[in-house]
Amino acid sequence: MHRSVLFEEALELLDVRPGGVYVDGTLGSGGHAAGILARGGAGTRLLGIDRDGEALERARRVLAGAPGDWTLARGNFAEMERLAGEAGIERADGVLLDLGVSSDQLECVERGFGFQNDGPLDMRMDTRGGLTARDVVNEWSEEALAGALREFGEEPRARRVARAIARERERAPIETTGRLAETVSRALGGRSGPRHPATRTFQALRIAVNRELESLEEGLEAGLRLLARGGRMAVIAFHSLEDRIVKRTFAAHAGRMESLQAGGERRVGVAPRVAVLTRKPVTAGAGELDGNPRARSARLRAVERIED
Q1: How many C-beta atoms lie closer than 10 Å to residue 221's C-beta?
Q2: Three-state DSSP state, 80
Q3: Beta-carbon neighbour count of residue 152 at 10 Å?
Q4: How does the average pLDDT of the chain come out, rounded?
Q5: What is the rounded distance in angstroms from the CA atom of residue 123 to the CA atom of residue 40?
Q6: Exposed e or buried b for every residue in 16-47, given b needs 16+ CB within 10 A?
Q7: Lowest mean pLDDT across 19-33, 204-218, 279-293
Q8: Quick one: which of 158, 189, 192, 164 has its CA closest to 179?
Q9: Threshold 0.90, pTM exceeds
Q10: DSSP helix/strand/coil, 87
Q11: CA–CA dist 28, 51 (Å, integer)
């Protein structure tokens, strides 16, 4: 079975207990979900959510025969309250989000997430419809492209890359990952280190296509509201944009004490109130990195809901 990133660490922070109710909002191939069910045993209940229909089918095979009661739902984790309600779940003892793109998605040429092999520019997590990377690359203005590359890819030379894309698409629409990667590479002077020059561009396009940051903000709030008192939420982020949102959201719900002019103090923060369990993010150890270099960028943070 596929071993998910920070597997043991995530399950420890979720504090999986027999008979608990859990939501895996980014089911993927089902690795974390299988671990939750194995630890919780026969009385455990789990809802697995994913936007990718192919991922749900892979997870269904992985979870076949697992102990406990599990349900799978296709959708965005930003909708987890509605999806949980439809599954008969009012409160959860744990919510997990693993924000990384799975190896299966990266290695599927037809999905267009990577550029190691030439494939169609798609990048949709949910292939049932909506915006594709081809739409963004060929239809967005040069200014909008540069803004997306700067904001979502943290590309320092976003303007240069956007200009190169705009010029290239004038010859003919850019429809493949290979042509886009080559266009970006030329604009940035070619490869000079371990990271491909198009890495930030592909990240930015994927985030834009799937509205990942908006979904993350909505999903964090939904997950915290869904937690029962004493329930825990664990989130694994893979780049600084995601990690900043997770850290900021958790800090806002943890709140702080503010002194009053008339004496005493009051709490300033967002409801529901949580306690932060990870002052610094948990990262992969040397053993995991040896077997899975992609885990190098993983950052795990967790909180516990302490008030209704």
Answers
A1: 17
A2: helix
A3: 22
A4: 94
A5: 35
A6: bbeebbbbbbbbbbbbbbbbbbebbeeebbbb
A7: 279-293
A8: 164
A9: yes
A10: coil
A11: 9
